[in-house]
Amino acid sequence: MDKKQAILKSVLKLVNREGFYHLNMKKIAQEAGVAAGTIYLYFKGKEDLINALYGMIVNEFNLKVLEGYDDGKPVQANFFRMIDLAIDFYLGEPDNFSFIEQYTYAPFLFKENQDENFTLLLPIYKMMREGKKQGVIRNIPDAVLLALIHGPMNTIIKLHLAHKTDLNKKGAKQKFHEAVWQAISV
Amino acid sequence: MDKKQAILKSVLKLVNREGFYHLNMKKIAQEAGVAAGTIYLYFKGKEDLINALYGMIVNEFNLKVLEGYDDGKPVQANFFRMIDLAIDFYLGEPDNFSFIEQYTYAPFLFKENQDENFTLLLPIYKMMREGKKQGVIRNIPDAVLLALIHGPMNTIIKLHLAHKTDLNKKGAKQKFHEAVWQAISV
DNA sequence: TTAATCAAAATGAACGTTCATTCATTTTTT
DNA sequence: AAAAAATGAATGAACGTTCATTTTGATTAA
To answer: Which of the four, A35, A127, A144, A186, has the lowest number of CB atoms within 10 Å?
Structure first.
């Protein structure tokens, strides 16, 4: 069994269940079924461990979301597919969402990736630019566009995970991505 | 001088500067210019202190945002004013934003206000319902509507505070609230 | 096949530090 | 001079990290 992976999975599970605040190395070790010292064979320390996990999730996310991208298709089709894939990514592994949110809003906790936080948004940027060039997306500042896409996505996932709405209901995702499209299209 | 208030302000400043992770009682006391023990005269402990601060900010926010509400005016006017006031609230005291974000995404950190997190959204709900009744706001699920309003606001403020956009530029707020309106209006 | 050897992997008790909280004492206010 | 407010050193628990020791598993020798 891959202990490194088991340790990372433990952190993910624990952060989601109890938050960063209650995270400690002993719990991580227990959850992973290894000794406390073992963690230090694979990671420099707590901080390194957390950063490694963040990097892993961001990579997985970008990979998954860009699967949907096809330059041949119209911008709208790419957009719908990207939104749906992003939602699927987080609903399939909700721990990822919780972790990313907590990591993002912990200033100075792990300094390295300060601007890198916006790495997550690169796929969106790509699509936005293309849409503007073709004239199908409104010509408003990038930041506003970004806010109109990323913001609702974040919130709807949050609401879903808090059982305030159900994105798995038939047509729910479609209704959502169409609403976002209406906000950003000309 | 009101020591209780000074202590709360210290927490706000420190959480924004260094994050929850590096927050400790000694620093809070130093920043507030009191002894560590003094904090316990005004609060039961660290947890109580954090919760009190959260409650305070939520109250201030709702008060400020609802200032803009006037039943006599059309829904759109109320909406624009509310959005602008919410933005002003956070730009005027960015520490509030950072604190609320970190508090919201710390599951089980301070259990009390789990569902209460949505208290912040009550003014938005109020307006939404009214707009739907009058037929000026699209008849899509509340959660989706909420996501289309609250999400972009969060993100645009985040982008502003990260210097990725400038909401103080002439017309910036207007452009933003109009874009959001386009997303939610019929 | 069995025994011996050794490096790599893993362990978890121990260490030093940090931190929230307490409380005997001092300072301030009434 | 009594009460209330404030202090900050002391306390003990919790935590991240280390490291001497043990276990594992592959390799070699008999």
So the answer is: A186
